[in-house]
Amino acid sequence: TRLPRETVYVDITTPDEMITAIQTMQIRGAPALGVAGAFGVALGALRTEAASATDLLAALEPVAEAVANARPTAVNLSWGVRKVMDEPLTCTPETDVNEVRRMMLERHARYTGSRRGQRILERWAEYRSRFVKVFPKEYRRALGELAAAHRRAAA
């Protein structure tokens, strides 16, 4: 084992990567698991394609459940997930979905002291554009062909 002699940093950018890191014991220790739970849900908020606040919160329910169940006996993991999910957000169904994402990330940073979360918030306009939809290559190619066909038809 690397602990306690070695610290290793792992880049995690999706909820699935977070779940894998938790399940493979890349993240260890109760406090770290609490942070991982909260950040896993925040990553889900940043990755969803939801168009409304209501849709975003609905889309996050299965993400929150999957993250919390990544290590079912880890109390702090489920605590971190609950901290992000259970506190009411001050938004309406008409609230801009990116504003809801920012609020969830703020909550994560507040409860966990996450420096990375705080850094993203401080430069939200820059970082927000880095969260993109992930497409299979063939789907992306098909979308490109459809767009080209629409351009040709309009010309």
Describe this entry's structure for a reader.
The chain is mainly α and 155 residues long. The protein is built from 8 helices and no strands. α2 runs antiparallel to α5. The model has no long low-confidence stretch (mean pLDDT 82).
Explain briefly what this protein structure is.
The chain has helices spanning 15-23, 30-47, 53-68, 75-86, 97-112, 115-122, 124-128, 137-154. The protein has 155 residues and is mainly α.
Features:
155 residues, mainly alpha, 8 helices, 66% helix, 0% strand
Order of helices and strands: HHHHHHHH
Mean pLDDT level? 82
List the total number of helices. Answer: 8
Give the overall silhouette: globular
Strand content: under 5%
Instruction: Give the beta-strand count.
Output: 0
Q: How is the biggest beta sheet arranged? A: none
Rg over C-alpha atoms, rounded to the nearest angstrom: 18 Å
List low-confidence stretches.
Answer: none
Report the span from N to C terminus: 63 Å
Helix content class = 55-70%
Write the topology of this structure.
Elements: H1 15-23, H2 30-47, H3 53-68, H4 75-86, H5 97-112, H6 115-122, H7 124-128, H8 137-154
Helix pairs in contact: 1-2, 2-3, 2-4, 2-5, 3-4, 4-5, 5-6
